[in-house]
Specification:
2 domains; five-stranded mixed beta sheet; Nucleotidyltransferase, domain 5; alpha/beta; 324 residues; 13 helices
């Protein structure tokens, strides 16, 4: 029987940090809901973020914690050093930053730092839509475009939003580079495209309605402008996914998340266009014709946010401890 570990986990994004304690032996994963904490991070120092989240969760746990695992929105080196964090202002001022050492100093126990999508992917393998999978992709198109890959059971952070996608008009990405896919296809970029197109066509977006939600409804109503826009977006996403399948033909499943993508993929016109473009691009059409494309299914909090990164953090920590 494998050792059971109590891990204090956290998921730190641009505006809030969530944490909870998870008990796992690699087979079962139990998130203690009484330890779940969510706090806005605006105006807080780095130490205060963890005092109000990880420290609180740990104090609410009945059992002593064996380690700390924190996911951040940005590339991480050696599960410790944050290289870039465009949406986390506290870290932007000190990058690159050894967050693992800071956590070890704060909590006097071993710690790891993961990319948030690497953790989300590991969470889907542990308790979600990728359970039992060995080769898979996770794509997150919300405000930005993030992702991770599962290579023979190992979760690896990726940056699919920063593949090169030339635009008719050069598009500058938030990372500072030109013509990243994220500059055209992130939820934020699509929101701006909807606003610009509606302004050009003299179409009024009702006050209080999110532009992408407005476009979703227009697509369902068969409006030509929405069909043209979403058809183009779906084709580009499908082509990028097909290119990923060419890079790794072993992929057997694609899981997706993020507000824009989760809503758009519910619309058959959009999801069919994505799959069609993907299959036209892959060189292994026979192998990938039946590939599953599914939404993430890890448990969610009461406010609807996926808890996948918290579960994934616990599993990555356990794996690293077992392999050390």
């Amino acid at each position: 029987m494998q050792q059971s570990l109590n891990i204090a986990t956290a998921d730190w994004g641009g505006t809030n940090c969530r944490s909870a304690v998870i008990k796992t032996d690699g087979e079962s994963f139990i998130l203690d809901s009484t330890t779940y904490v969510r706090c806005a991070t605006n105006g807080l120092s780095l130490n205060q973020v963890f005092e109000k989240t990880v420290a609180v969760s740990s104090s609410l746990s009945k059992d002593k914690c064996d380690g700390v695992a924190v996911a951040v929105a940005g590339p991480v080196e050696n599960h410790g050093i944050v290289l870039n964090a465009p949406n986390i202002g506290i870290l932007k001022e000190v990058l690159p930053f050894d967050l693992r050492e800071r956590l070890k100093g704060l909590f006097y126990m071993d710690a790891i730092v993961t990319n948030d999508l690497e953790a989300a992917l590991a969470g889907e393998v542990a308790v979600g839509s990728l359970k039992g999978a060995k080769w898979a992709m996770l794509e997150n198109i919300g405000t930005g475009w993030g992702g991770a890959r599962l290579y023979n059971g190992v979760a690896v952070a990726a940056e699919p939003g920063h593949v090169w996608l030339p635009a008719e008009d050069e598009a500058k990405c938030g990372c500072g580079r030109m013509d990243c896919a994220e500059a055209q296809l992130s939820g934020g970029a699509i929101k701006r495209a909807v606003i610009d197109l509606c302004s050009e066509l003299g179409i009024n977006i009702p006050k209080g309605t999110h532009p992408c939600e407005f476009a979703d409804c227009a697509l369902l109503e068969g409006k030509d402008w929405a069909s043209d826009l979403y058809g183009s977006i779906a084709e580009k996403i499908g082509n990028i996914w097909g290119s990923n399948l060419n890079n790794c033909p072993e992929f057997q499943k694609i899981a997706f998340m993020g507000t824009f993508l989760e809503n758009a993929m519910r619309i058959r016109y959009f999801s069919s266009a994505v799959r069609r473009a993907m299959l036209e691009r892959t060189m292994f059409k026979g192998r990938h014709e039946s590939i599953e494309i599914v939404p993430v299914q890890a448990p969610r909090s009461k406010d609807g946010e996926t808890l996948g990164p918290l579960y994934g953090n616990a599993e990555i920590f356990r794996q690293m401890l077992c392999n050390s």
